[in-house]
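Entry 14. Ran structure prediction on the chain below.
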Amino acid sequence: MLLTASGAWAGEKDCHDSVIARDYSRTIVACLELPRADRLAMLDALSRGDYVHHLGTLDRPSQAFSLLRAHASTGDVDAQYVYGTLYGMVHVASPENWVQAERGTRTRESYNSAVRAESAVWIKKAADQGHTLAMLDLADYYVQLSYDDPTIDLQVALDYANRAGSDNEAIAALVVEKVRRRIDELR
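Output, structure tokens:
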């Protein structure tokens, strides 16, 4: 990675510039350094949390992440979705990067639960404004929650997935089927 004239690393600058431009599809690419040529390697890195990002920490977010949150706070639906998604991705602690001493008495599970809940708040804001991917992600999130809490109202998940279907029929159909299967399992 190269150092720019301003003293920021090139990846940090690209990340920040993409947020300033509100080019959120570029934000995800610029703010996460992943192996892009090999899709399986990229998915593996994502699942293990084995990548570099330019978003800072919960206690010290980067300027780009703070600006993204500010954009999301104004009601920018795309910023809400990207902020929520990135928040959940970069702050969830894997067994490999969990450092108990930095978290006090909190367990990794309770920490991750809080991170996922905050992520879902922002994704829900976008979903409630009709953001298709947010609706699909939220429906999937509710299904995942139902494994820990079978009292979760999966009808809400089904409603989000059905609403998303008007914009993306193929993916929505898969999510609708997943929700229905889970509802049947819980009967």
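The two ends are 53 Å apart (CA to CA). Will compare against last week's run tomorrow.
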